[in-house]
Amino acid sequence: MRSKLLACGAVLLAISCSQNKPAGGDYSVSANVGDEANGKMAYIVNYDNGDLLDSAVVADGKVFLKGTIDSPVLARLIVGGQRSRTLVVEQGDIVLDDEAMPSGTPLNQLFADFRHNEDSVGIAYGDADSDSLRAAIYNDFQVMSDKFVADNNDNPVGYYVLLSRAYDFSSEELDSVLALYPSFGEYKRISDLVDMKKRAAATAAGNRYVDFTIEGDSAQSLSDYVGNGKYTLVDFWASWCGPCRREMPVIKELYEEFGSKGLQVLGVAVWDEKDASVKAIEQLELPWPQILNAQTVPTDIYGISGIPHIMLIDPEGVIVARGMQGDSLRKVVRETMANYTPVAK
What we know:
Blueprint: H1 2-16, E1 25-32, E2 41-46, E3 52-57, E4 62-69, E5 73-79, E6 82-89, E7 92-96, E8 102-103, H2 106-127, H3 131-151, H4 156-166, H5 171-180, H6 188-202, E9 213-214, E10 220-221, E11 231-237, H7 242-258, E12 263-269, H8 274-284, E13 290-291, H9 297-302, E14 309-313, E15 319-322, H10 326-338
Parallel strand pairs: 1-7, 11-12, 12-13
Antiparallel strand pairs: 1-4, 2-3, 2-5, 5-6, 7-8, 9-10, 11-14, 14-15
């Protein structure tokens, strides 16, 4: 098993050392997208900032786009409003195969090789028969990825690999990487991530919560529910979010266990339509209060990049912990509530 990983690593290190100098110029993109897409619009958009690069109508199950690019850009192909493929738009004729892997130009081949090797490492990780082997596979891949980013800090594939890892970095770790490779800081997603990491650090455990107000039929503020002499579990969620829905039974379990002992629960629906949130609340039979239609207001403030994101705030408004799910959530709440005696009014 380990030998397979090392073989994958050797290939990855080899491709990371390839000379793939960015080049602009005329490009074409051809892709088989299926007859069900006939008549639908296909777009190529900049992966980093969403800018439109080109568009065409799907015919005979295929799409063909062409244009001129100043320098290579990581991009998405969107068909009929649905995300389809990821590629690098650069000079040359680019082909997207049935496995959605791009080919035909140097950076697209580099991108496809990395993705294939990433998949191979994932299979090796899944097949590993011990925690120690899984840890070794994970650590080896991080080392390989670091070298890949270092060797490709001047092209969009290096940006893609860095971005895929950077969400797990601390604010300090991300700053260190950008100090070594400042060109990555020019990407919007990286710049936004830097700001998000700083906001997350400023609202980490041990800091006082930051209030926000959501306007609507009646304005609601986080301060309406927290810092009122009780512990409050705040759940940032959305109706379309499968992991959010799967976490609800855990929150219900804790609410039933500790609700009479001074634990409050508050839901904050983010990145969602109000009507969809209301419907989900009814379907899931959520008994706690909700702040609806919060969109990106709280997630921007707290530097939240994914949901569910659950936060425990103490009676004085200090954040005890955040980012817990499942057993880790149970552990934090149970340990906290075991030492808590509500103040009699």
